[in-house]
Protein: Antitoxin
Amino acid sequence: MTDSFSIREARAQFATLIHRAEAGDATVITRNGVPVAALVPVHEHQALEDAADELLAREAEAHRRDDTVGMSELLADLFAERNGGGTAAG
Structure:
């Protein structure tokens, strides 16, 4: 079970929470009862980063053969959207 601590509690017990993370336990940090952060063992953090990298690599591979656009066309479309004009091409 993941415990939660307010920011004030976490600050006061920081060393204990670090020891808990070293032991494999995660801790959720809350502000006004709302979860805002998590202190997790570094191996769990690394596993999440590795999974995100793999997901991005799969997504990129799935679109590797898609048609591409030049930077100038991309920027023109982005600025047109920002200014409420739709796409520059259309």
Summary: The mean pLDDT is 90.
